[in-house]
Design brief:
The two termini are about 30 Å apart. The protein is an alpha+beta fold. It has three domains: about 5-110, Alpha-Beta Plaits; about 120 and about 255-475, Trigger factor, domain 2 (Orthogonal Bundle); about 150-245, Chitinase A, domain 3 (Roll). It has helices at about 20-40, 50-60, 60-80, 130-145, 195-200, 250-255, 265-295, 305-320, 325-335, 340-370, 375-390, 400-410, 415-435, 455-470, 470-475, and strands at about 5-10, 10-20, 90-100, 100-110, 110-115, 150, 160-170, 175-185, 205-215, 230-245, 300.
């Protein structure tokens, strides 16, 4: 069976397979027997009509199609085995000719990843220091947690809380959306309902109805609404302003925290935890920069099927597994007002980035000998069970039955695979940071800690979590969106199991 191969871009291999005539004829005979069983041929019992009668009745193309259904998988498998092709997805077929029978197959194969001289990559690292303004903002965040909302008789201002009856209709939509007694904060930079709504509430007085309209942004993420006119009818039922408690020793003592009694002590605690948050954010940004540099320096060739798989994973997560059935997927798409084509196009850039990150991290882990053992996964399961069980309010903690139930959740094969991927990603990112943070030559060069690599990331995570979970610390650091741990797994790929070759 003659076979020719050609390597194509995007990790594809083109096969051209010529099938021997006698082999095709044997499969044509089998196709005749199958078809004559299913198709009634006048004058013949099922399965008894001769080939020439069946072929004259149904046509040779129908016989050839039936024969190829069983012939193609066989010749394809023989071809990829003979040519040592490692396929990672389904091939696409094209019938080049029927006499002789020549079939073309395009096969996605394992990606190739070349990291070049990754050991020479360097990223300058600046010290991260919390500013006085950040500390003051964190202190104000503590006060806000204990603020009261008092009714006021004045127009709406930024920072107020309001209760309104709202009706909004968007150009092209059949029915308006109506919500009665909606309560929300009017915060600068916030989004309630649609972008631009809060800005138009400022200055409105209680009562109404007030009517206003505006155009939504042209780049609005819901593409079907971008640039459309939004019309609002709003009745303001109540306006409340935020009243912060005085920052004095009595306020500090109200925390019921034996370690804090004065404003100075609170300020020191908040300053310490603000510095922790700033450092964590800087570390996350540094990991992102290191990951971007590694990605930019790598030469990657990978098949589109990996991106499609990642898109499917995103859809499955976002739909809460509604995509497992066609009906469920269609209901979910209708609920979010998107078509499947538009959603896939929206998700594709992020999915493509995740695949590329997964491939370079996988390759780096191979070069650096980074691995995750069953014992590592077991220790991570223990840590997660202990952490979740610590949240039980019972004085005795979690019962044996509750602990067993928690373990069954974290100890499933799927969850263990997820934990393995996460641990491998974290450790590989840690190693990448060690590489790019090295000083050039001299005594300042960073030593590579080999023996402790496997558990270093877990210890760091535990220490950060313990610090971040202290009550006042959490209040002090919670003002920044995506705070302490944001980006810690930013390089974590959904396709981390994707194989990579050099």
């Amino acid at each position: 069976m003659p076979v020719t191969t050609e390597r194509l871009p995007r990790s594809l291999v083109a096969l051209e397979i010529e099938v021997e005539a006698d082999r095709l004829e044997a499969h044509m005979d089998k196709a005749v027997r199958r078809l004559s069983q299913r198709v009634r041929i006048p004058g013949f019992r099922p399965g008894k009509a001769p080939r020439q009668i069946v072929e004259r009745t149904l046509g040779r193309p129908a016989l050839l199609q039936e024969a190829l259904e069983q012939l193609l998988p066989d010749v394809y498998q023989e071809a990829v085995t003979r040519e040592s092709i490692e396929a990672i997805g389904r091939p696409s077929f094209e019938l080049k000719s029927t006499e002789p029978l020549v079939v073309a197959a395009t096969v996605p194969v394992r990606p190739t990843v070349n990291l070049a001289d990754y050991q020479a990559l360097r990223v300058p690292r600046e010290p991260a220091t919390a500013t006085q303004q950040q500390v003051e903002e964190a202190l104000e965040g503590v006060r806000r947690r204990y603020a009261t909302l008092d009714p006021v008789d004045r127009p709406i201002a930024w920072g107020d809380a309001v209760r309104c009856d709202v009706m909004v209709s968007v150009e092209g939509q059949a029915q308006p959306h109506v919500e009665e007694g909606a309560e929300f904060r009017v915060t600068e930079g916030g989004v309630v309902s649609l972008p631009g709504f809060l800005e138009r509430l400022v200055g409105l007085e209680a009562g109404g109805p007030h009517e206003f309209e505006f155009a939504l942004p042209e780049d609005y993420e819901a593409s079907e609404l971008a640039g459309k006119q939004a019309h609002y009818t709003v009745t303001v039922l109540e306006v409340k302003q935020e009243v912060l408690p005085e920052l004095d020793d009595a306020f500090v003592r109200s925390f019921d925290d034996e370690g804090l009694t004065t404003v100075d002590e609170l300020r020191a605690r908040v300053a310490e935890n603000t510095q922790t948050r700033v450092q964590l954010e800087a570390d996350a940004a540094y990991r992102e920069e290191a990951m971007d540099l590694l990605l930019a320096s790598a030469d990657i060739d990978y098949p589109e099927v990996l991106v499609e798989t990642e898109v499917e994973r995103h859809i499955d997560q976002q739909s809460n597994h509604a995509s497992h059935t066609r009906e469920g997927l269609e209901r979910w798409l209708e609920s979010i007002g998107q078509t499947e084509i538009d959603l896939r196009e929206t998700l594709r850039p992020q999915a493509d980035l995740m695949v590329r990150r997964a491939l370079v991290l996988h390759r780096l882990a191979e070069f650096e000998g980074i691995e995750v053992t069953p014992e590592d996964i077991e220790a991570e399961v223990d840590r997660l069970v202990e952490r979740v069980a610590g949240g039980f309010t019972s004085g005795a903690g979690a019962s044996e039955e509750q602990l067993a139930s928690l373990r069954s959740i974290f100890d499933s094969p799927e969850q263990r695979q997820t934990l393995e991927d996460q641990l491998l990603t974290t450790r590989t990112l840690d190693r990448l940071v060690e590489i790019v943070a090295q000083l050039e030559g001299g005594d300042g060069e960073v030593e590579r800690p080999r023996g402790s690599r496997r558990r270093r990331g877990a210890r760091a995570q535990d220490g950060e979590a313990d610090e971040a979970e202290r009550d006042v610390a959490e209040a002090g650091s919670g003002e920044a969106e995506g705070g302490g741990s944001a980006g810690a797994d930013s390089g974590e790929p959904g396709a981390s199991e994707a194989p990579a070759e050099g």
